[in-house]
Each structure stands twice: as C-alpha cells, then as structure tokens.
C-alpha cells in the first residue's frame, strides 16, 4: 500500500511530542455539563481512544478537539495551537471522520474525493494523485465511477475515511468509526486504520465497543458522565481493574440472585446483571468446578478472558451498552 500519510518513517513510532493537550477541559450546554474538567495528552504516532457509553462526553470532546465547538472552560492545545485563535490553521492539519457519513451521494466515489480535496486548495493534479492512492487504500478502486448512494455501509465508511485523508492530516479524528457496521466490515475498517497508524498518522478514536478499543488503541481513557474514570493501555486497565478470567453463569429469568449465596467466595467478586452472573477469577475452569461441588448448575456457563467492558462495569456499575 502506498504511504498515504506522506511522511517519513522517522515519525512512525510513538514519540514524546504532544499533539493534543487538555487541562481541566470543560463543555457545558446551559445547566448540563457534557465534559467535566478532563486532562488528556496524545503523543505523535499514538492511537488514542475515548471509551464510554453514549452520553459519556466523547463526541463533545471530539468536537472541541476538531475546532467546531468552543471550549467552555480549561485549556486545550492542538498541534501547539489554541483552537480559540488558530481554528483554521488547526483544521487544515486535521482529518475528521464524523459519527455519521456526510458524503455527497449523488456524486461518484472519486468525485467525492476530488471535491473535498479542492476545499484545501490542492491542485487538480495533486487531487487526482491523492484520490488514486486513497481509493487503493480504501479498496474502492473498482467502484471509483459508481454513485455513492447504493454503496454498502462499510464502503461508505471507508470512503468517508479516505476523504478525511485528502489533506494529508497529521491527526485523524474518528468518532464511533464502526457503529452500524457488520463484523466483517468492522474488521476491514480496523485493518485500514492499522495501516494508517503504521504510516505515521496519529489516531484519536471514540467508541463504545470494547473490542474496538482493545484492537486499535495504544492508550485510552474510560469516560462516564463527562469525567475520566481511568486511563492506560487496554492491557494495563484490565490488569488493574479486573481479573484474568470471567465465568458467565446464566440461569432462568430472575433466578440469578437466589444463587448468590452459593456463588459467593468462588472468585474475587461477583457482578449481577439482568440476564447472568459474572464471577471474576484468575482460574475460570477451577471456579466452575467449585461451583459444581457447591451444587450450582446454571442453564449455561462460559469461561472467557476479561475485557474492557468488565473494567467499565467495575468502575461504574454498568455496562458500556446501557
């Protein structure tokens, strides 16, 4: 794949250069506080994530970072500049993939790229060269002359990302990049994003999919009600706030709580969800064997590794999809 970033290999690893710095960043809408005094740093070459449920403040944060929503309070610096005074200069160096595709559906695939590229003052020759590279990157070369409207959701999402790269951005903002896509389309998109990171583009991602955050992010923050409740790499967060394995126990409807006395003490802790019990333990198979000796016989059981959703459940008492 061609290097769509246009930058040298020297920036392809994470560096100490801070591209995004927020201190006490706040966003309010009347009496409602969407972002409540968060501190964040993103370094060049990172894939950084904001993980949390809908309404956690992720998109409000991204709109401030994208210089389309003014900061209510605190300090925000992007590429060393202040969005309040340097918005146009910052936006020229950002790529933005919004939560919803805003493509020109009456135009062809390649025409969407051409029109967007001209917004940045690129020459016709440069626009066509960049478009050819990005169509190949997005696996859309054979659809270049097709109108956008009938394309699949996955194709439209890849085109949206390709369009956001026309200005050769240093930082790419991705707001819920795979929402609404089927599993196959999500994995294809993840592969495209891995390639971007390899080519030196710094990624800032919001998502409420824990597997997406684990796949894409070097570091992330977990947000809830506008605040950051934890920060670190996916592995470090799981090690800090969960156990190596989780046993899921499913019983008949509304029978979970009557089994709690027998389950108590089998693992480090037990979480009660509407449809199952979660037993957190270092040894899932050993926990299942102990439950059998105690006479606990669920309708079904599953031993799995801990995920970021378990971290979020531990920190907030609710799942990411609440």
Sheet having the most strands: 6 strands, mixed
In the CATH scheme, what's the topology name of the largest domain? Rossmann fold
List the secondary-structure elements in sequence, H or E.
EEEHEHEHHHEHEHEEHEHEEHEH
Q: Please state the second-level CATH architecture of the largest domain.
A: 3-Layer(aba) Sandwich
Beta strand count: 13
**Percent of residues in beta strands:** 25-35%
| Total domain count | 2
CATH H-tier superfamily of the largest domain? P-loop containing nucleotide triphosphate hydrolases
Helicity level = 25-40%
Distance between the termini: 39 Å
Which CATH C-level class of the largest domain is it? Alpha Beta
Side-by-side strand order of the widest sheet:
5-6-7-3-8-9
Rg over alpha carbons: 22 Å
What structural class results from the helix and strand content?
Answer: alpha/beta
The tally of helices reads: 11
Kindly state the mean pLDDT as a whole number?
90
Low-confidence segments, given as residue ranges, are 1-11
Question: What gross morphology would you assign?
Answer: globular
């Amino acid at each position: 794949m061609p290097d769509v970033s246009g930058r040298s290999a020297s920036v392809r690893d994470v560096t100490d250069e801070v591209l995004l710095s927020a201190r006490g960043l706040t966003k309010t809408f009347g009496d409602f506080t969407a972002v409540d005094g968060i501190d964040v740093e993103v370094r060049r070459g990172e894939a950084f994530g904001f993980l949390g449920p809908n309404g956690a403040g992720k998109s409000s944060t991204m709109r401030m970072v994208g210089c389309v929503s003014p900061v209510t309070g605190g300090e925000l610096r992007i590429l060393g500049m202040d969005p309040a005074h340097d918005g146009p200069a910052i936006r020229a160096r950002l790529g933005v993939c919004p939560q919803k595709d805003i493509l020109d559906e009456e135009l062809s695939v390649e025409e969407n790229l051409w029109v967007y590229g001209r917004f940045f003052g690129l020459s016709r020759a440069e626009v066509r060269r960049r478009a050819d590279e990005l169509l190949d990157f997005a696996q859309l070369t054979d659809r270049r002359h097709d109108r956008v409207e009938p394309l699949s959701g996955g194709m439209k999402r890849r085109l949206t990302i390709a369009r956001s790269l026309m200005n050769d951005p240093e930082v790419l903002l991705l707001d819920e990049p795979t929402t609404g896509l089927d599993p196959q389309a999500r994995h294809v998109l993840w592969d495209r994003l891995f390639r971007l990171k390899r080519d030196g583009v710094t990624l800032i991602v919001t998502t409420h999919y824990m597997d997406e955050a684990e796949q894409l992010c070097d570091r992330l923050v977990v947000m809830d009600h506008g605040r950051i409740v934890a920060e670190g790499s996916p592995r470090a967060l799981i090690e800090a706030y969960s156990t190596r394995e989780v046993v899921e126990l499913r019983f008949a409807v509304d029978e979970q709580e009557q089994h709690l006395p027998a389950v108590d003490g089998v693992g480090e802790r037990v979480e009660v969800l509407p449809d199952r019990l979660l037993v957190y333990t270092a040894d899932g198979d050993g926990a299942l064997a102990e439950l059998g000796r105690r006479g606990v016989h669920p309708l079904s059981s599953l031993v799995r590794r801990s995920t970021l959703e378990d971290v979020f459940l531990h920190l907030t008492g609710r799942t990411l999809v609440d």
